[in-house]
Structure prediction request, 74 residues.
Amino acid sequence: MRIRRILAAVSATAALAGLGLTGAAAATAATAATAQGAPSSVSPSQCQEGGGTPRIDLPGNPCKGGTYDGQSVD
Prediction:
């Protein structure tokens, strides 16, 4: 009986440790993706070269379509 309790405690600890490692890996991947993200604003020519259209007539001056879709055009 004592062996069953010990094995249950060991397997529960291993399962929780595995979840912790998975969460750490996901957080690291998210941080890496954010660090290499698109610039917060692009020039009108960058927007066009990326296949988009600079819409300076809309609020926030977004680039519509292409690589920089949604980015602010300055």
The radius of gyration is 24 Å.
